[in-house]
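Lab meeting, action items carried over

1. Structure of the three-component assembly. Owner: GW. Status: complete.
Input record:
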Amino acid sequence: MHKDNRIKLLFLLPAVLWVLCFTIFPLIYSVRLSFFNVKIGSPDEFIGLRNYVHLFQDQRARSSALITLIFVCCGVAIQMTLGMALALLFNRPLRLRGILRTVMTMPLFATPIAVGFLFFTIFYEEGGLINGLLHLNVPWLSNPYWALASITIVDIWQWTPFCFLIFLAVLQGIPAHYYEAATLETNKGWSVFRFITLPILQPTIILVLLLRITEAFKVFDIPFTLTTGGPGTATQVLTMYAYRVGMRFFNYGYSSAISVFLFILVMVVIMTLFKKIRQTYQ
Amino acid sequence: MYTETKVTLVVIVIVLVALAVFLTRGCRPGEGTRNGSGKAGYQHLKWHDDGGVDLITFEDAEVIHLSKDELGTMFGRGKKPFTGKRIAVTVNNSGPKGGISGPLYRLRPAWEELTGAKLDIVEVPLAEQLNKTITDLRLGVGQFDGFMEGAWYMGEYITPGFIRPIDDYIPDKRFPQWDPNWLPPSLRNIHTWEGKWYGTLNDSDGQVLYWRNDILTDPEWRSKYKAETGKDMPFPTKTWQDVIEIARYFNGKNWDDNDPDTDTGIVMHFKVNEQGMFHFMSLSAPFVAMGGDKVDRGTNNYWFDPETMEPLIAQPGHVRALEVLYRLSRYGPRAQAAWDLGTAWDWFLRGKSIFVFSWGDVGALVQDTSRSKIRGKLGASVLPGSYEVYDMNNKRWVKLPQPNVVGNTTGGSWHGVISSRSENPEVVYSFYALMATKPVSLWNVNRGWTGVDPGASIHFLPPQGTADLRGFVDAGWNESDLRFYLKAYHDNFFADTMLPYLRINGAEEYWRALDQNLSETMIGRLSPKEALTRTAKEWDEITNRRGRAAQLKQYQRSIGYGR
Amino acid sequence: MEALRTLKRRHISSWAYILLAIFVAAMTFLPFYWAISLSVRNPAEAFTVTGLAVPFVQYKPTLANWKTELATGETQKALVNSTIVAMCAALMTIVIATPAAYAIARFRFRRPSNGNIALWFLSQRVLPPVATAIPFFLIMRFLGLLDTHIALILLNTTFNLPIVVVIMRQAFIEVPIELEEAALVDGANHLDIFLMISVRLAAPSLAAAVLIVIAFTWNEFLFALMIGTIKAKVIPVHMAGAVDTRGVQFWFVAVRTLIAMTPPVIIALLAQRYIVRGLTFGAVKG
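Predicted assembly:
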């Protein structure tokens, strides 16, 4: 650490001010909007908690929240498990690993909106890639449960490589002598994993979990393009519902209430994981 | 470390170059990269000695001839009356060769040469166009001079005065000439508001029934039908029940030798947040709409009670219609619950379905043999009717001797309106009017991909209209298909009873609520009754939020109640 | 004998791993292959050719879709816009974020502590964008910046600022402090040290951060849809127009998909070495 110096503020303040200006202020504004009935062109009408009362009576909001939670839980759980399993399997000298890593890097930054459209053609039920190739007859997009599964599958396709690459990186960083000592005492792979690998991986697991959960809650592009929230409202996640209410139908107040609710939901989930992650960064 | 520093340097250099590019040309984006207009050495006009002109379309270089009278007096060789002006018009996002937006691209270079002005075509996705333009207008940003609107946007634009009437322009000889009287009253109704004209002639939307004429008139299939069901094939279909019977019989059979797989009875497009609700509207019309000279709750009315703004969508007539739609949908491909227009049409074009009921695009696309296997095999008519109609005044079902057949203007009838914020309304109008002239309008209607569907008298063959068979045949039409098609559309737009069109503030929001609940019905999550009851409840909420009194007043005006 | 058996077993299992690796790679790559295959088909073949759809075997490939799409002015414009916005956002982000990261890494803050400042930045990523969408829209309207590149650059800078702060903080912590201290003794000021020594030593991380910001900005859709209409229309918004009133046109979807995805995918491949580290905000070393 350098000695204390006024100049540190000069370094830090622009970024802090920027974030305050463009993140905190809009958030506060959003919270304010959520207490109003907003009509462009006429003054906002203060309506207290009525938007929130409506939120808890609104069947669509409830079902959207449920859909979002299912999407996040299933998607993230499967990605993490798959990524972990693959990382453990390939954590050994293997000729093709370089190529595998390269290929696995490709989905990470693939434009989500394009991915949504692409999978629209892949899930096409009458001769699309999957049904056509495997001679299946799965109602990928026309059945409510399958449609939810479909957007989850896209998320899994895009983000399993992310989990895989991170876990692999950490596994490869574990010095060999950790294992050598262990193998002398016990020969079972499971115990090695349980008592050596897992404790080392634990902070990373929590970190990846955290990152994936926050991102998964924000999902918008994929259902927006792949299913447009349908069929019915089967894949209308909270972000899409907020967008629909606010940007399409100009009910800014209610839309803000939905967004604030979503924000609180994410925060609650994050807070429960928060203490562990703090250690990683301090 | 050395190479990594180099990578960083390269990246930084790229960023700086980009910044330089941005500073030098990004400040006036849109210049220089635009296609089509101003290309050196490519003329988009050819003047004739009699003052007429050939418009040469973009890319395809097809020729459309306008006489001097049709062109209007402000244009002429070298006149370019609007030099230096620039206008922006929003349109559904379909690209340079897609429906509705395509014709704008085709005509733009010629129009720019005629006027000297520049046209920005602002493509916006269908689901975003209304909110984008409304937000722009309400906030007073004023980015756009005109909108190629769907007819249900008009209510939203009218009340705050966002669009301007064009009654002064239409008879003005300076502009390209078109005649509002070409349009039947049903279509005139959705281009006007309280007697004033706002929209120019472009697209005319309405749903008609298409079928595979080769199959349904095949004696062999007819006798097989009789042998298997014990009844004569109810064809030509008079009611929706007939359609269901036939669709049920053919569904799951491989009645077409295009491919080895089984085919379906009907195909529809129910993808949510798209245009599925239009299916319900046009199918339900004969169960609900009563014709007559007056306008009241049960006559020439469909959506709301004109006294109380109570939603009528869950009335017994509407519910029965949804039950019929649901039963019919069982005889189509399962995947249609998530299909949009293009996908569903393609199914029919590939010979996979007996019926489809949809817009005029289908008939025209059938002629395009690169996508269609059924050219020359098409039949079409106005949508079937119902022997029973629910009388909302007396709250009882009425039996009729003849089926109640109702025409519809379902869809957008996408047409141009002019923003009242525009500083160049005349420039905008000159473009719309050029698109509405007889030669250009016919050129569009003759070609299916333009998305411009027939509706005006200039599009129909004599005796109903003034169009020339030759123009259609030259554009690739099969004559039998064409005669079915034009008759179907003529019968539809000139029907005695029409389905009233919802044109009030929030029409989009009301329809989207209906659409979501319909979609829930199609996947079996809600019964027809539940779906419409829920729709009615949501409509009440929308009405209350937007202000009941104002909504009611506007609704009364839009249907001509109490006049 | 025993040794031979072990060798054999190892051999077999090694083949099993290779097969598995190939399978996993194929699954990951398949959608990209499908996009390429669709993009070189005629419209009529988009629906009718099924299965793996091998070009030349099942159909005759054509570049017509590509030509039409790339020749369209709107596509070119969207590409230019996307590039401008992504580059400028990346530049702005690093200019603002790197000094802050340096400050957190090198100076002691008491209240709030260094770790908490970093966490505070990181927590900005938790905020769902839709929560700030409407205020942002109204702010941009107030500033008269709707439909401008500047608005999109500002927005994307905001979204990516926290990431870069956290990535760079970790990078600076790992740079040995001795050089800087020596320079201080020689009388150099902090600004010079920051620019001449620290940034240079942390260059690889900086490069990774820039690439990540470019990719994220390129992919951002929600705000681009709200803000960019005519002049500032970027690729994802242009992309959304492959669906129209007349349905999804598979062949154009495929072309536009590839146009949209190629740059960020290339970036991912370029930055492969740093990506793990970047995406975990420096917590995991790749």
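2. GW to write a short summary for the group page. Key points so far: Residues 2-39 of chain C form the longest helix (38 residues). The CA atoms of residues 147 and 170 of chain C lie 36 Å apart.
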